[in-house]
Amino acid sequence: MEIDEIERLEKFKELTANYLSALKPVKDKSGIHTAKIRVYDYYELASIIRNLLKLCIVALDQEGAEVPSTVKNQSIDVGLILGIALQLFPIDEFELLNEISILFPPDSRK
């Protein structure tokens, strides 16, 4: 292996250690990973779950598109759902892809 290739592989190892942060492996070595979301308390977690369920109800019945009248608060807090999606968005991993594309430019892969 050339020195340049070894240096790039070392840099690649360093980048993956620093940027692959969205998923954490479960300790039982089952191949499963966890992703974290941050919430203030159980009430906010319950709100998230309720809004996800209401959103699914509306998505399943696009014709009727309404939450059942038995549910007290029928409005869907889309901002809350989008906030969770943003927390789960793997921005560090996209930065890693960018660094890899710089480290291994398309013309060097021949």
Number of helices: 4
Largest beta-sheet characterization: 2 strands, antiparallel
Q: What do the pLDDT scores average to?
A: 82
Strand order in space, largest sheet: 1-2
Could you give the order of the helices and strands? HEEHHH
Distance between the termini: 15 Å
> Which shape, going by the Cα principal axes?
elongated
Q: How much of the sequence is in beta strands? A: under 5%
Which labels suit this protein?
110 residues, mainly alpha, two-stranded antiparallel ribbon, 4 helices, 4% strand, elongated
Tell me what you see in this structure.
The chain is mainly alpha-helical and 110 residues long. The protein has a two-stranded antiparallel ribbon. The mean pLDDT is 82. It folds into 2 domains: 43 residues; 52 residues.
Concise summary:
This protein is 55% helix and 4% strand.
Topology:
Blueprint: H1 3-19, E1 24-25, E2 33-34, H2 42-60, H3 78-88, H4 91-103
Antiparallel strand pairs: 1-2
